[in-house]
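The data are set out underneath:

___
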Amino acid sequence: MTATVLAFEDPTPPRAGPTDVRALTRALDGEAKLLQNLLDVLQRQREAVAADDLEAVDTSVYDAQRILLSLGQARRRRRTLLGLAAGNEGLPLSDLPRLLGDAMTGELSASIDQVVRVADRVQRQMALNRQILSGAIRAGDELLRALGSGGRKPSGYGAPNTAPPAAGSSGGLLLDRQV
């Protein structure tokens, strides 16, 4: 008779060691710093739009893309460290204190708070920049249209500056007089 051994996954997460917690704290601090850098770039971008400085706007877009790539790498690192410390790479930061229990430190808690706070500010500032940039693009399009038409509105079918035909006139009616 042979014995069959069944392996069950242990539902309790691995206990985070001090090294895991310190590494996670450093990773979150780095992520918060990147988010703060992104906030600075978004501010410079708004200032460049207000000053009609296209070169500075272009530079700010490049800087934001570079920071966003770095944030993607930082988040991948955080996921890896969450997997090591808590056994779940996709764990929301808000669940980390409950899961870590006694291994949770004040430094890690402060780092989590900082990332959440700065990420919220970034989200609001990005929405504001999106509105400002959309408005600037619309204004630029309107200016180009006005320059292209010599400052007057196009007079096409249904244009607002087209007057109705005067009484007694043909009103633009064309007749073929040939028989």
Summary: DSSP finds four helices and no strands in the chain. The radius of gyration is 31 Å.
